[in-house]
Amino acid sequence: MDLFDHICDASLLIFFPVLVVLGTNAKKFFIPVEILFLSVFTIRFFVKRSTLSLYTIWTIGLSLLALVSTTYAPNQTAAMRWAISVIQVVIFGNLLVPYFRDDKRNVHVFFLSFILSAVGLGFRLWMSAPPEQLMNTRLGESIGFNANFVGFIFAIAALINLYYVILEKRWIALPLFFVLSVIGLFSGSRKTMIILFVGIVLLSILSSRKPHTIFISMILSLLFVAGFLLISFQWEPLKNIIGYRIQIFLTTFTGQSIDASANERIEMIRLGIDMIKQKPFFGWGLHAFSDLEKFGVYSHNNYIEIAVSWGMFGLIWYYLFLGYVIIKGIGILLSRHRTSLVVFSVMMLLILCLDDFGRVRFYDEVSHILYALCYAIIVMHLPLRGIDIISLLIKPFQRFIHIKSLRQE
After folding, report:
1. DSSP three-state, residue 388
2. Where are the domains of the chain?
């Protein structure tokens, strides 16, 4: 089993960087790696007699919502593509929950894979264009990646390094935290800056237990935030990429200028709310916002997209689980079962829920793997309960044999 555990580690260390660095569209690379990952972790799921969890129930509900909503979606072909994506990502999550929950070491293997993914993505970006071009355009454009996705990867990888600095006292991770943070800012994504700022503050506060340490952590985290803002506004290359966008965004609220991007997002929310009012319970079906509204793209808001697609029933189902896990995690932080990994998990879930105001993630692979990670960490101290699939398959056979033996007697 030790050898097999190392095989599982290796498959994850291959699968996740390929997912992040090359993406699912690089099919000649991604599909073989995906098959390897699914094969290894499916075998692990059965060999380890992994039990069905609350996460499993939640994701079965998501899969049913996705499939049923395709039947009344305006574009059933596009809706089915999204439904398949939902099913794919929840399969990833269900295979990884037992892996993360079995051993804290496995969580750190995933952290390593995330950091390697960010480094690999940075290397691919570096090789894709001359440095002067990369310094004057939003990161991701040179390789056909969405800049917001690129910024998200660097921001989360930076926060993982900050976790090691603050909670594990591994100061060697501090330089990489700064490097990844600054690279993430070159994506020009304001959501990336918000993730970094909120993540720094939450990690600082949640890792503190006494009032005076919370105050000191707040001061230090605010200094970090001020430092990043100063770099964004004063360093010319970064100012051209994100400093100007932040300035325009802030002045929009004072009426001094108009941020076209922000106004478009606000208009999307308004149109989404109108659609929800028309079909509030079960929505319009997957992909409906893109098909029925003038923008022709998704709503850039996970709450709006889910409510339009699945109605309020789907929205409640989706966030009831995440809310439960967050509340459970906060309860653990106040108990004797508090661990540094639980601190990270609560911080991560809060960030993802905040980021949902500017991103659609219910069919995103990286996001669902993070959901699985946080859930597994928060329930890690609880005893394993439930029925594993092998038992479910064996029980009917055992019952048949028992009935047959009784008849023979």
Report:
1. strand
2. 1-49, 51-408
